[in-house]
Design goal:
CATH architecture of the largest domain: 3-Layer(aba) Sandwich
Number of strands: 16
Shape: elongated
CATH class of the largest domain: Alpha Beta
CATH topology of the largest domain: Rossmann fold
Structural class: alpha/beta
Amino acid sequence: MLMENQKIMTIVQVLGNLNYDDVEFAHNGETIKTVLSSIALSKVMVPDTSVKIIYYIPESVVAFLYENEEEIIQKLKPPHAFKDDYVKKKLNLDLKIPHEIKSIQSLGLYNINNKNTNFQINFENSLDNIIIQVVADLLDMKGDLIFDISTGFNIYAKALLEAARHLLVYNNLKAIISGDSQLKVQIAIVPPVMRNIKGPYPITLVEEKSKAFFSIPYSTTSIPSAFIKGGGRAYPPEIYKSAPRLLPSTKSKIIAPTLIAFKAITNNVPLALFTRELISFSEESMDCLVKQLEEIKRLPHFINGNLLISKDVINHEREHIQRLTLTRMNVKKKEVINCLFTLGLFESLKQFYDENVNTSEPSIENINKIFTDLYSRLDMGVNKRFLERDLRVIEIKSKSLQDYEEICLKDLNILQYQGISTKEEQLKPDLEESRTSSDIKRNFFAHSGFLNDFIFVKKGVDGNILIRYDESKLKTIEKWLKTPEK
């Protein structure tokens, strides 16, 4: 049970097919004698830290754990009993440390028991499958996440590094506006451990710095739904119908509002976010988020549950080799990661919307305060400068409004009142500009979405100037926001 203010640290390590001996590891000025660098790290971490280790056991360890073909097949099926046999036979774990044993997919060709060259096992798989498995397993991680790449084959080092970057970008996107990311990722590096040298082996922690940018992978909601590549040999089409995918509710309740909100922000049209007919994050959207994340988490289980096993005899240089082949479906990594990053951006935008826009009325003061702060956080200095200018123009034009009077901005004549300050004189070109040229769409985006004949202004309580769009213009504005570049 976590104590208040206690830090959380999770160490992830893929183990290999060797018997690990006790050696000395050094970190933070301390030396620990143990079998694995992850154990040493867990013992020298800062106080008030809750540490857990996740050990991944590759499927390929069956090649030296068992000799019988049927036993291998049985142990590779869920719940993957080979991982527990590996720990009992090959690894002297310090069971006092909180830990979890997980299986991880393998890739490549192995000789069974490392002695019988006439019996092989072949894992037909992809690196993308392994990467997505790690991402799916660790999606909910918070606190400090350390990937120890000192053990395991090189494909696992690559997989862990790729997964680390994806997880970090996802979490950074969730916090791209608030700036309070809940995840810190580090890579643990150890020099090669030699059998005749007992150390000490220094453990170096390198922080992963993958940066998230305010961007979205999609330009439209017309995107493929499949997360699994179709057309795999021996797989009937019916299997793909139950495969994890991009859900229809995700497209309509998450991607659609996220996409238009993103375009409204990047193209500096803040009033669109105050207009429910244009942008609205429904109450059901968070339920849709949970369901879509569960679909991603389900991917490795679906792939493992549809494993194809075949037996062949290969003739090679006058030898007959019995080969056991395990074939997996292949994940569409790009589609999965694009979906995940969009979910992260959605969470950030919805939090911003709920905490700022949804609780405020669209007054000049509120729009200026909320969106100049947002643009500062997102390094959109140009948007901030233009918004301040255009809001000031509306403010000056609205000085002649009577209390509670509402009128279309084009009907307010700036020349009807006197007393423009010296600073306001500089805005005269904008004050007198009709903004009704032939390129009306360009003017719309050039003036923060505040076209004179598109907005109504009203003097509300305490003299606040409220702004809203003309309802007859909303269809046009929606079309422009969806395709600002056309």
